[in-house]
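Quick illustration for those who missed Monday's session on complexes.
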Amino acid sequence: MTPKESAFAALAEGIIKNLEKRGMEGHYFADSASLCSYLKETLPKNAVISWGGSESIKESGVMDLLHTGGYSLIDRASAKSPQEARELFARTVLSDYYFMSANAITMDGELINIDGNGNRVACLVQGPAHVCLIVGRNKVSAGLEDGMLRARNIAAPANTARLNKKTPCQATGRCGDCLSPDCICSHTVITRHSSHPGRIQVYLINEELGY
Ligand code: SF4
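Prediction with iron/sulfur cluster bound:
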């Protein structure tokens, strides 16, 4: 284990304890391959599964696993019209498992997520029976203030570049606190507690994943 990996393994132990106090489950994985093996063993074969936009899901190999595992998938991106997108979202709300990442997680176990459209944070807050977050070690922040700075100045500029949004952060690489039509920071959700124990599961991966 490198010093960086060793430090994160120790940090993850504390984060998992803090998640438990907050009604959420935390699991540590040394790498993405271990997470994929775990999911292969534990996800029920006929589970109805959907996901929110996330580079971590792709980079970890979980997206490939979902598409080859015989699950019943709901892919909102496949919608041919706004009405179909609404209908797929309605089905997503009733899904068994919803995968996403977090824009930041604090050492105390709080989750920070920003969202333009709002469908991702809506499913985090309520709806799907299980919400599974794939979180690389690069997402950990010391506290809420650091996490918010991370979400707005590291995650958002990379996401606006990926999505080719016309926002100040795409031009400068830092948040300009915009209200532009392309803004991806319409909603900010801090999850400090879940009143449905175990519904939210955080998979802490000892790798850099996503933004
Ligand atoms: S400039 Fe706008 S889109 Fe970019 S991070 Fe700031 S509020 Fe979000």
